Amino acid sequence: MCDVCQTRRSFPKGTSGKPIISIDFLNRLQVDLIDMRSIKHDGFNFIMHAKDHFTKFSWLFALPSKEAHHVALHLRNIFYTFGPPKILQSDYGKEFLNWPDLIIINGRPRHPQSQGLVERANAVVQKMLGKWLETNKSLDWAQGLGM
Prior knowledge:
It comes from Rotaria magnacalcarata. Residues 15-147 form the Integrase catalytic domain. This is Integrase catalytic domain-containing protein. One of its GO terms (molecular function) is nucleic acid binding. This protein is α/β, with parallel strands linked by helices. The protein is 31% helix and 20% strand. The chain is built from 4 helices and 5 strands, in the order αβββαββαα. The protein has helices spanning 3-8, 68-82, 116-136, 141-144, and strands at residues 28-35, 46-52, 58-63, 87-90, 103-106. It has a 5-stranded mixed sheet with strand order 3-2-1-4-5, sandwiched between helices. Strand 2 and strand 3 (58-63) form a beta hairpin. The longest helix has 21 residues, at 116-136. It is globular and about 65 Å long. The N and C termini lie far apart (61 Å).
């Protein structure tokens, strides 16, 4: 515990991830599901959050369950409107289907840092939605998403 020993002691360096660089709109789309089962309303239990990595634009959809066909329906609407992304990045959920001509990247299970952009945005969405519910004195969070 002396000063000399402390100055010679090496400190472990944190691992820094390699930054993701996007060069165009819908080059990389990160998708995640937010569990809203604790305050489910009108049969909706989840929020699908899709976020473009380049523009930071978000799409939010209320889902009754996290089954693949519900997720695919909303992803297909994004793809038909704006075109498919080159890379679809998600957590390790099985609800994200294999899409032809797409590179699908799955993060490690229970490791939200692998897609930090959408995970950080999830916290912002939940905070904003909570404020909307409080201001409007409502429990209909799906309406707060604009549905």
